Amino acid sequence: MSEPQARSVLIVAHTGRPEAVRSAHLVIDRLAGAGIAVRILEDEAADIGCADVEVVPDGPSAAAAAEVVMVLGGDGTLLRAADLARSAGTPLLGVNLGHVGFLAEAEREDLAATVDRVVSHRYDVEERMTIDVTVRRNGAVIGTNWALNEASVEKGERERMLEVVAEIDGRPLSNWGCDGVVCATPTGSTAYAFSAGGPVVWPEVEAMLVVPISAHALFSRPLVVSPRSLVAIEVMADTPGAVLWCDGRRMIDLPDGARVEVRRGAKPVRLARLHLTPFTDRLVTKFGLPVTGWRGRTRPRPEEPGAGHER
């Protein structure tokens, strides 16, 4: 009879925050006490400074065969951890130590209970759609990337407007003189696309968003397109200094005449979920939305579908 595989958890922390380092120590102690091996990234090891952990290089192999990646920080830290977890298919569990923390599943005051849920396997896993990005010039591929939240084509020079033409499924849509164009997932609809005036899209909706930024055009409304669509943003030949950002972290310089193609990602990102909280409640909590005067019911009546199943 084969030996059961040893359990391990990768911790990714915003080590620039003292609170994240303290939280990492608590997580390491609780996991080690439960007999679970802990990995930390080579770049973070000196700041965390714990013994009896496995130090691993910062790369796709860091999360391989780990049960979960615990992320201690804000959404930026979780997006960094997504780079490590996506290829391995390891779920991310975010503990918010930042501000809004829309991608996080737990808050700082719930840290100990969150670790206990990991130890006892009491969490669900959901998949979030990603986008794959290809950059071409004169037909040749000059760059590829991916994003969980968004890919944004932006002007590289403050004093110059970006001139682009948008294409959906092989057909031209419109020219825009603008500051940029955001192509986002439903997950990213509450990030950069939201700031640019795009709609909030519930995570279970499969779609892509196209949101022009400060466009000087009659038709510059945010668009919601099929997840099977191919969206292309072509940089006009006389536009200098454009750049592509993926999740605000990875940048590719775009020469004039570059074509950025965005399609549904081949691999999703997996998120660990502790609570089956409706997305509406998450919006209300994270944005502090006023709901005074609401007279609806918090639970369905017994005769209604879903009664008896707490959400």
From TrEMBL:
Pfam families recorded: NAD_kinase, NAD_kinase_C
GO annotation (BP), single:
NADP+ biosynthetic process
SUPFAM superfamilies named in the record: NAD kinase/diacylglycerol kinase-like (SSF111331)
Q: Which residues catalyse the reaction?
A: 75 (proton acceptor)
Record keyword Transcription present: no
Q: Does the keyword NADP apply?
A: yes
What role is this protein assigned? Involved in the regulation of the intracellular balance of NAD and NADP, and is a key enzyme in the biosynthesis of NADP. Catalyzes specifically the phosphorylation on 2'-hydroxyl of the adenosine moiety of NAD to yield NADP.
**Protein name as it appears in the record:** NAD kinase
Q: Which organism is it from?
A: Actinomadura rubteroloni
State the organism's lineage: Bacteria, Bacillati, Actinomycetota, Actinomycetes, Streptosporangiales
Gene behind the chain: ppnK
